[in-house]
Design brief:
- With 245 residues, the chain is of the alpha+beta class.
- Helix content is 21%, strand content 14%.
- It is built from seven helices and eight strands.
- The strands form three sheets. It has a three-stranded antiparallel β-sheet with strand order 1-2-3, with helices on one face.
- β2 and β3 form a beta hairpin.
- α5 runs antiparallel to α7.
- It is globular, with a radius of gyration of 17 Å.
- The N and C termini lie far apart (39 Å).
């Protein structure tokens, strides 16, 4: 497989057209006039710094391998796992300040099979994207149902396990599918302290549906979380426009 190229800053702007206007020199310019620096000036960050204190450019540093088949990630290759908190607080709100709940909508998950109601943000059309995912997954054969329903959660104002960083669930753009069929690096023997042994049971048919609609999968991370999907269109090929609501 040819080497993947990281997404460009121009693709970041194109991925969030309602919120972002353009790159202006070394700044990201939002449509409301807000400026954010793209780079904190710290070069060649070690993995821990890249993960814990990423700037906006760092979020795009590692290409996400959308659409590929089964592949074990290389050590510390976690594309999308670095999230600049200022960027996402600005985009979706800070849940610790009560800024996210009013932006949530309900999506009916697998409407013909389960009809579970999930709360997810409407910002950037995420709720409508997840609804499209749900309807497409609803048409898969029954053998896939055990991985999909009941979903384990969407919005939750909490920190990431073992850290003080807000989870993607705190911004309302993430969904976890069935936990009992999933694998997580911290659950693996020695995972919290040493080399992570990769494991996954989630069928790629499910993964590819999510990816087509703008969601990356935690199973493509070395520090894997195979139940986890989050809306990160800046790391994926351009999406088709949403139809009128």
């Amino acid at each position: 497989m040819p080497a993947l190229e990281p997404p460009s800053l121009a693709h970041l702007v194109a991925a969030y057209p309602e919120a972002l206007e353009r790159i202006d020199g070394s700044d990201l310019l939002w449509r409301d006039g807000t400026r954010m620096p793209l780079d904190d000036g710290k070069e060649r960050k070690p993995f821990a710094d890249w993960l814990v204190t990423p700037d906006i450019a760092d979020m795009l540093e590692r290409p996400y391998p959308a659409g590929i088949g089964a592949a074990e990630p290389a050590a510390d290759d976690d594309p999308g796992r670095a999230r600049n908190a200022d960027f996402f607080d600005k985009m979706y709100g800070d849940c610790r300040k009560g800024e996210v709940e009013a932006k949530l909508e309900t999506v009916v998950w697998l409407p013909s099979k389960k009809g579970q109601r999930l709360a997810i943000t409407r910002v950037n059309g995420v709720a409508r994207r997840l609804d499209a995912v749900s309807r497409e997954l609803d048409r898969l054969p029954a053998e896939f149902d055990k991985f999909l329903t009941p979903a384990s959660g969407t919005y939750n104002c909490r920190t990431i396990a073992g850290t003080d960083r807000v989870s993607a669930h705190g911004w309302g753009f993430a969904v976890d599918i069935v936990a009992s069929e999933a694998d997580y690096w911290r659950w693996a023997p020695g995972g919290a302290a040493g080399k992570v042994a990769y494991r996954n049971r989630i069928p790629l048919e499910i993964v590819h549906v999510f990816e087509r609609h703008g969601f990356i999968w935690g199973g493509r991370w070395y520090h894997y979380d195979t139940m986890h999907f989050e809306y990160r269109p800046e790391l994926l090929p351009p999406l088709a426009p949403l139809p009128p609501p």
